[in-house]
Sequence to fold (151 residues):
Amino acid sequence: MSTTAIKDLYQQVIVDHSKRPRNCRRLEGADRQVEGYNPLCGDKITLYLKLDNGIVKDISFEGSGCAISTASASLLTESLKGKSLADAEALFESFHRLVTGLEPSHEAPKLGKLAVFSGVCDYPTRVKCATLAWHTLRAAIRGDEERVSTE
Ligand code: ZN
Fold:
């Protein structure tokens, strides 16, 4: 595929997940619940996690925000179900390097569908939208905060 075709495909996935977000619901009996806020754009998210022996048994989110932040939260929940917390931390690192443009071509293969956010590194103001759910996830994994802000 040409670079333009790949970009179009990535764009379609983001639009699809922003319009029909997956796992977008409150999770009853969640072990962890963390709120994230990106004041730059006004994105808000609440992330719910259910854990079983260090494995993400279930994960969901609720929130209101721009297309990028919603699609990112949706794809995050899809990617993390069934993963260990160590895998989740590793994905956070890879995703962060991808969207900040550090090693996009190196990280993309490890990220699967999450690679659709590789174009975000060209738009610095959108990086916080794309990473909000991930910062919230990390706080939920570490269990050290109930609220995170990108600022
Ligand atoms: Zn946003």
